[in-house]
Structures are given as structure tokens and as C-alpha cells.
Amino acid sequence: MQLHGRLKTISGTILGLLFFFGLICQSLSANELVSPRVDAIVDKNNEHAFATIAQAIEQAPNNLSQPYIIKIASGDYYEKLVINKPFITLSGAGADTTRLYFDDYSGKATVNGGNLGTSNSATLTIKSPNFSVENLHIENTFDFAYYDALSNEDPKRVSGLQAVAVLTDYGSDKALFNHVKISGYQDTLYTKAGRSLFINNTISGHVDFIFGGGAAVFYKSNIVTRARPNKQLPIGFITAPSTNIEQAFGLVFIDCALSAEEGVQDNSMGLGRPWHPTTTFPDGRYADPNAIGQTVFIDTWMGAHIQQEAWHPMEGTARAGGKKVFRAEDARFFEYNSSGPGAFITTNRRQLNESKAASFTWENILGEWYQSPRIQQAIQQVSTREVVSSLSGEMAEYTIESEYRKNKKQFPFISPINKPENIEQTAQSISEHYNLAYKTVDGLTLHLDLFYPNKAEQAKPLVVMIHGGGWRTGNKSHQTPTARWLAGQGFVAVSVEYRTSKMALYPAAMADINDAIKWLKQHHKLYMIDTKKIAVLGASSGAHMATLFGAMSTNHDTKSPYEAVQAIVNIDGVADLTSTAARMFEDKPGKISYAALWLGGRYAQEPKRWHAVSPVEYLSKHTPATLFINSSHDRFHVGRDAFVAQLIKNNVHQQVYTIPDTPHTFWLFHPWVDEMRSVLASFLNKVLVEENPR
User: Fold this and answer.
1) Over 80: is that where the pLDDT of 423 sits?
2) Which of 68, 312, 398, 575 minimizes the number of CB atoms within 10 Å of its CB?
3) CA atoms within 13 Å, Cβ hemisphere of 622
4) What whole-number distance in Å separates Cα of residue 664 and Cα of residue 182?
5) Residue (of 237, 201, 236, 235) closest to 216 by Cα position
6) Beta strand ranges found along 299-443 (DSSP E)
7) How confident is the model over 632-654, as pLDDT tens digits?
8) Which helix (DSSP H) or strand (DSSP E) does residue 628 occupy?
9) Number of Cβ within a 10 Å radius of residue 147
10) Residue 51, class by beta-carbon neighbours within 10 Å (0-12 exposed, 13-18 middle, 19+ buried)?
């Protein structure tokens, strides 16, 4: 048994190195290794490895000064762990295949007659600095949902349902979580102390499920609200910070997504509430008055489940006894550049100004730790689409309002299409349906807005509208004014929400558009849709996607998975990403482009993908009739002439219309939108209402 124990930890001997090299190759794929050195292996199915993670941690030396890497093979590990040695690294085989779980909860009775309490319920507790974990699922499996559903009178009901999955406790600092899933219900992640960084994590829960007084950065992470049926609204709160007033940073979310499981209703979830922990002071035990919590969301996409008035008060113990209400407006709750159907700007939802938002950098929050090899290695491992710091600021904000501010100096006569007096009064003649859910994927529910003429006696042609925003940002609401106008002209117009590059790489967005069309076909009788007369219309990057979708869906040689359409409308979008002219802008040296962020790499890295998303690659005699409406900027004409030439060769109807002296986003402003709509209506009537012009 002594020899067995020695072989579990890699020694400096040649025999040990050769043995473990073979063991690693057998149990774990090479691309899972993030370090050339592995110090211990946990694998329940290998007699030469540790059977439990706890055993491997116990064998690690004390007072480490560099990472001690424990590689964990795929499988479920029912363990309750406390990390009390510095520089421990847990490296799983994948967050979908390697799980650490336990089922303690706060109200669980202890042998001394008390209860565990929230902190002691954690599956994983970190009490030492420089901990890191990657490619692992950490879960508290206490059955919160069962007990939460019981009535107060039910004898089986228990109190203290808080059940922590991960706790960064006192003594923890510089804790790194990379590609980790953290799952629970109430109090899932307790950032009690120290600094921590969460990159590409998925964190799930519903009641105060990210909370505490530590400084934590969440980057490119999916924050998932879990269903909690039959509960008063809000069903829960994403955060409950208790940041000390002297601490500059608390819970900071950068470029994340706030999504929801199926069954979570719209407008049901709060962003946070201020937690003032009950603390012992010389004059008594009461809520800490210095816990002026901070939660900040920056460049974060928010699903429709987020409440419009999203910040809430929270009770705490008063100094004189009883309860005291702590107001949300007295905490440090802010947003900057939120997007998605749950993004609102209200008096309750305070916004950072640009200069203040710029202070929330990794360097400022993490200090000298940001320069450490571990952090830099984690950053280098983040795929191309996730290197936000390399982007220029040109897409930092993309709304109708921001485009108006950008263009009004050169064009002082313009007015936005969403200005109240510019919105056509068509309410009497059309029906409007907002945020109809058409799909749920990876905990994210996608929606569409639908407009159709009232009193239609027969099915009407459908126009599916795809918003722009560099494949990365934008909102379906940008299409609302023109969609309403189209409904007034006798069409069914639908603006579709899809996953941007912040949430998923190509082809996710294309699949979303296809699923939206399938959903519309399934409901065609309800909304009077002619399923044999469908146009896809897009603007800017949305125009590229619409053109790609239309060309791919009708190319008989590619076995396309997409629903065939009968017309394409391209409003100032490129039709070829691979040409030299296109790559001058879309693959500019020294900058991570928005196309690269969507496709997962530059042209040199992913040439097949760049060709795969170029509409000119799919032209045939079956390509739908196509309309190009362009600004005066040649950059957005790239690929158009080659596309049109092929349509002419194949005797396919095509039309090109350029509006002179216009900015790229001309379709968002009067007077140009009026000219655009006139051309658009003429084309749609010709190819969808009248006889096919082929």
C-alpha cells in the first residue's frame, strides 16, 4: 500500500514520469491539459489513481508556492471539500462530464443540537489563496424545489433552505474559476471574502444566488435563473452583495448573459437586493451598516425574465431589535450598456456614465493579480470571440439613439424612426404581439415580435426581419417601426431575437432564425401567414445573415438545414466576407473584428468558416429574388455586384437601389426610411403578391 500511495503523486523519477504519462493519455485527452505538469490524478476507475478528490488534496504538500495540479477524470464525485492549502488547482475533464456534488443545507441539524448554517452547507469551501478550478461542475444537490413547494403547515417542511455550492471564505484570495458550472437554488455562490475571477462560467440558481462581500469579476459567463413555480414575484434575486463601504469593488459582471430555464416567466426576476449581514458589534448584534453592497452589470445581455424595476429592498436586523428595511437606492447598484429584452433604463435602474464605467477594468478590480501567469494563461485560452479588450469601441453602444447622436451633426435634418411622432398610427388596422417565445436553448428563451393586418380575409406574405449590430449587439426593437409599417401595407412582419456572438458562435444565430420560421409556419393559421410567400429581410450584419439564409436555404447542392424562402432583402450588408475588399474591414490587422468574434477566428485561422458564411458561395438558379438597398458607403456593397451578376446569369429577379449621401444606418432615420420603404413595398408586392417575376 505504501508503493500504491507513492504512485498516486508524480515523483521526480523516470519510472513515475513514464507511468503517469501513459495514465494521462489513457484517462484524459491531450487537449484537456492546460499545463505540462500534473501532480496528482483522481479517477475512481483506476486503481493507481486517487479514488477521491479529498485524498489527492490531503496528499498535497503544505505551504505550496506554485500551482499543485490535481487532474480529475470524468465521473460524479460525492464529496464535501475544504481547500486549506494554497495553490491547489482542480482540473476536471469537462464541466459536462466531471461533477463534484454534495447535499447539505443551512437548516440541517448537527450533533450538538444546532444547525449547519449557510457557510457550512457549501459543497466546496476555499480558505486559502491562489486556488483555481477548471472544467468542472460544482453542485449543491439539496432538493430545494421539493421543500420550497411544501406548505408552511406540512410536517415535512424544513427551514433554512440555503444551500451553497461554492464558498470563497476568509483566507481565500485570487481564486480563479475557468469553464466551470456552479449549480444550486438559494445562495449558490457565496463570495464571502477575497478576490475571485469567473471566466466562461455557468452559474444557476434563483434566490440571492450570487452573494457576499468579496470582490468578484464575472466575465463571459451565463447567469441562469432556475424555475420557481407558483411563487410571488419576484421569484428571486440574482445578487445580494454585502460589500464593505471601504471596498471599491463588489460583484462586477462584464459581457455576461442573464438567461433563464424553461418555465421562468417574463418580468419575474430581480437583479439584486442589498444584504446587510447580522454581525456582532461591541454594542450588540445587528445588521452591518457598513455593508453598502455593490453589483454592477456592464455590457450584459438580459433576458425577458429580468424585471423592469429590477432592484429591490431587503430586511435586516435592527440595532434596537426587530427588522429594518435597507433600500436598493442606498446600495451601489448600477448598469452600463445593458442589452436584450430585459434591459431598461428607469429611475430604479441607475446607469454608470462612460468615465465611471471605464474604471471597472480587470486591473483596477483584481490589482497586481491581473498580471499573474495564471490570469494571463486563462485570458490566452479564451477564444477569439471572447477577447473583448482587443476590440475598438465602435460597437460599444448600438441603438437607434446612439446612431442618431453619431449622425445628427453631419445630417441635422434627420429624426429617428422610433421618435413618437414618427411612429405611424396604425393601431386600428394592425395587431401587435411582443416577445412571443419561439425557442429555448441552453437555458435561454428567445422571442419574436409579430405584426399583422387586422380583418385579413386571406393569408398574407411573411417578412422575417433580422436586426444588425456586428453579429454581436443590437436589438429586435430596431425593426419595430418598419415592421408595423409593413403590417399596415398588408404583410405579416416579424422581428426576431437571436443569439449574438456574445452568447454563441455561428451557426447558432442562423439556427435561431430557422427555428423562428418553423414556429411561424406552425402557427400560420393563427396569424394568417402564407407559408409559401416568405421574405427574409436584414440590415447591416442582419442583411448579411438574411442573404446567407436565403441563398443557403434554396441551394439544392448543399443539403441545407434551413427552411426555403421566396425573397431576400439586403439593407446595406456585405455579400462576400472572403474578398480582399471585405477583409480590409472585416479582418483588419491589429484588431479582433466582429466577424472573427462571430466565426471564432480570423480568416487565416478559420478560412472554411469565412467561406461558409459568404452568400456568394451558394448562388444557383433557385436563389430567391433579391433586393439590395444600399447607403453611399462602398464598404457595405462588397460582394453585391458579383451576387447580382450571378442572379442575372441564372435569370433570377434582382434589384439594386442606392440612396446617395447617406450614412450606413440610413434605415433608422427619416427622411431616408420613407424612400427605402417605398422601394421595399414595390419589391415585395412584385415578388410575393403579384406573379413570380422569374
Assistant:
1) no
2) 312
3) 13
4) 43
5) 201
6) 301-302, 314-317, 323-326, 332-336, 415-416, 430-441
7) 999 899 999 999 999 999 999 99
8) strand 625-630
9) 18
10) middle
Residues 500, 469: contact at Cβ < 8 Å?
yes
Question: Between the CA of residue 193 and those of 118, 241, 306, 505, what are the distances in Å?
Answer: 15, 11, 27, 35
Q: Using the Cα atoms of residue 336, residue 338, residue 342 and residue 345 in order, give the sign of their dihedral.
A: positive
Indicate if the alpha-carbon torsion angle 528, 533, 534, 535 is positive or negative.
negative
Quick one: cell of 140?
449543491
Mapped onto helix, strand or coil, the DSSP state of residue 219 is: strand
- Residue 160 · residue 106 · CB < 8 Å: yes
Nearest to 24 by CA among 47, 41, 6: 41
77 backbone dihedrals φ, ψ, rounded to 5° = -125, 105
Cα–Cα distance list, 570 to 275, 464, 670 (Å): 50, 12, 19
**Among 18-22, 88-92, 199-203, 352-356, which stretch is predicted with the lowest mean pLDDT?**
18-22
On the CB side of 626, how many CA atoms lie within 13 Å of its CA? Answer: 38
Q: CA torsion sign, 147 to 152 to 158 to 162?
A: positive
- The C-alpha cell 451557426 sits at 507
* Cα 201 from Cα 179, distance rounded (Å): 5
| Arithmetic mean of pLDDT over the chain | 88
Distances (CA, A) of 564 to 353, 526, 534, 541: 45, 21, 8, 20
In b/e form, how buried is each residue of 533-544, taking b as 16+ CB within 10 angstroms? bbbbbbbbbbbb
Binned at pLDDT 50, 70 and 90, residue 247 comes out as very high
Residue pair 418/480 in contact (Cβ under 8 Å)? The answer is yes
The closest of 476, 424, 423 to 448, measured between CA atoms, is 476
Give the dihedral sign, CA 137/142/143/149: negative
Convert 299-316 into a string of H (helix), E (strand) and C (coil): CCEECCCECCCCECCEEE
Residue type at 417? Answer: I
pTM (predicted TM-score) = 0.60
Q: Which of 118-127, 412-421, 585-594 has the highest mean pLDDT?
A: 118-127
Residues annotated as catalytic (active site), given as ranges? 187, 208
Looking up cell 444547525 gives 115
Which residues are bridge partners to 297 per DSSP?
A: 253, 335
pLDDT digits (tens, 9 = 90+) for 347-374: 999 999 989 999 998 889 999 998 888 8
Residue 278 CA to residue 286 CA, distance in Å, equals: 5
In this prediction, residue 425 carries a pLDDT of 56
475 in Cβ contact with 495 (< 8 Å): no
**How would you class 412 by CB atoms within 10 Å of its CB: exposed for 0-12, middle for 13-18, buried for 19 or more?**
exposed
Q: Each residue of 477-511: b (16+ CB within 10 Å) or e?
A: bbbbbbbbbbbbbbbbbbbbbbbbbbbbbbbbbbb
> What percentage of the chain exceeds 90 in pLDDT?
70
CA distances from 391 to 366, 375, 470, 472, 594 (A): 21, 19, 12, 12, 8
Reported residue count of the chain is: 694
Which residues on neighbouring strands pair with residue 463, listed in sequence order?
493, 535
CB 207, CB 214: distance < 8 Å: no
